Amino acid sequence: MDVLAVFAHQKVRLADLGYQWSSLWHEKGAKQDGFIEWRTATPPTWSDVIMQGPHFTVANPFSKEPNEGCRNNSDYAVWDLENLPELVIPRTNYQRAVGRDSYDSGVPMWDRNSATDYWRVAWRNMTQPGLERSLQSAIIPPGVAHVNTVHSLAVLMRSAASTVESATRRLQDTRNTVLVSGLWASLPFDYLVKISGMSHVYAELIDRFPAPVDHPAWPQLLLRTLRLNCLTRDFAPLWEDLYRESFSSDAWTPAFWNLTSLGVRSAAWTMNTPLRNDVERRGALVEIDALAALMLGLSADHLALMFRAQFPVLRKYEYEMYFDARGRKITKDHQAQGVKQQKADYKLLRAYLDGEDSGDLLDRYEPFPADESHNKPYFYKPDREAEMRSAYAEFERRLERNG
Question: Superkingdom, according to UniProt (predicted)?
Fold first, then answer.
């Protein structure tokens, strides 16, 4: 009840910010009307991409792509983000079936522009109890369309702000869209979907989502959200438009002492701009959990309570999860396995931890060196609740220090 009271007293909701959303192409109707057709292929441009839910997941627009000749929603291949090309367009099951003008005429207009002209937050519309995460969203680039199992939105300031110069307004709208995406990647917002009992994430639910985008912690949320989502050069304009000098001095909280530098000194996007390996991406998401809680006025105890009460699948996955020194994940549950993990790796890891023969495990994974806490090289075992509490306390200190 204490947690719900905090949510109930939020001053700014998404509906107050002003936004436009759409489900774009109705999967059945658009096929019947001849706008799109089922044909698995790689589109020539982002403006020809028609996404489905499996294409993205939490703060990751490159989660999976359908295999050639895709038959169902399980017939997808996972992207290896460490080896993601600098420029790549995902394979899709739906293709444009009419000329460009006819196709574009079916896309909604937002603020006198096509809905697909904007950087947007895309989310999977359907959810159900028992999922690891109930709110799965990521940033998608201009040009991208999707079928109605996916919805997307862009923050567009209301008319009261119309005196703001158009370029400045567009930049602020884009910033707020990215911040909304970052907040939605957190456990507190996922919690709201879980306790709603709804099987779809419709506008009547997201209207009531808090939107503390002007909280003093927003630059730290912005950096982590951009580094998670801006995975290829096609996202460079977003990174470069929203880059801030404070990004160069930002750093991981002590919860993630074993990660490489978080701060980015260059406003120019490079292949090193995004976070790519498993442990860094997870670290950024855990820090986003803590930032979102702070921005909402929740306590560290509230955050831990939400995690224990509503995320049993995530807890189960992380209970048997380890990372090596190169940030690669090994876990027991196949649904959560690292992209480079082989079938026998978890058993080999357990053998290593028990001091037994670990086969060829160390040929493919690099343990952390022995230290004062470990008498031999070891694999890092995460503890999300402890990490969230540590990150929360550190962000509190940073906010107090900066006034």
Answer: Bacteria
